[in-house]
Design a protein that fits this description.
alpha/beta
């Protein structure tokens, strides 16, 4: 059975994280991608992106089939919330404007229950350096590891292996690992054909990182 699970959205960061896990010491013991759907606007596009990515190197034949979990947050966020309507704040908006309260609490708690059932002892998230939110700190992950292990009576280490890296570092690593970065989706308002909208802050972060690497 797999011993590592990766929260996988089909985005640039989680795709590189999944590829990295396949190269690490855990690879021989199996890697399980998990996609969590919470009723947010971009999740259909994520699911299609995941299907495309996992059919190609470096993933094809090397990871367990993706498991999709549902954790509906539409009864928490109002119908007018940007993450429900698919109308995110502007291109240059600060991180605080796209904060989803408790996002990592939701992701970790649902995935942790699955990990307990499957006897998976390591859960990895693709968070990067500079994440300003309270559910993205080392202290948070330490507490969540202990709480999930205690509550499930099964050891679980919740980790963020890319936490020391910036987006440019992740792109470099992805290229080294052969990840088809052009097929990843990091966007809060995907357009027809699962194209990036080019107008949200996720698109801005992605575009700026590629531009910085090319000297543009």
């Amino acid at each position: 059975m797999p011993r590592t699970a990766v929260l996988f959205s089909g985005g640039l960061d989680s795709a590189v994280l999944l590829a990295r896990e396949l190269e690490g010491h855990e690879a021989q013991r199996g890697t399980q991608p998990i996609h969590i759907r919470a009723g947010l606007a971009w999740e259909d596009a994520e699911a299609r992106t995941i299907e495309r990515l996992l059919a190609l190197p470096p993933f094809a034949g090397r990871v367990a089939p993706v498991i999709t979990l549902w954790f509906n947050m539409r009864d928490v966020y109002p119908p007018t919330h940007w993450a429900i309507t698919g109308t995110p704040p502007a291109y240059n908006t600060p991180d605080e404007d796209v904060y989803l309260e408790g996002r990592n609490i939701v992701l970790i708690s649902k995935a942790a229950v699955l990990c307990g059932r499957l006897n998976i002892q390591r859960l990895a998230l693709g968070l990067l350096n500079g994440n300003p939110f309270p559910d993205a700190t080392p202290e948070f992950f330490d507490v969540m590891s202990r709480a999930m292990s205690l509550g499930l009576d099964s050891p679980l280490d919740v980790v963020a292996p890319l936490a020391a890296m910036h987006k440019e570092d992740v792109i470099r690593l992805g290229r080294q690992l052969g990840v088809p970065l052009e097929l990843t989706l990091s966007c809060m308002n995907p357009q027809p054909g699962d194209e990036h909208c080019g107008q949200c802050s996720k698109c801005r972060e992605r575009e700026q990182a590629f531009s910085n690497l090319s000297g543009g």
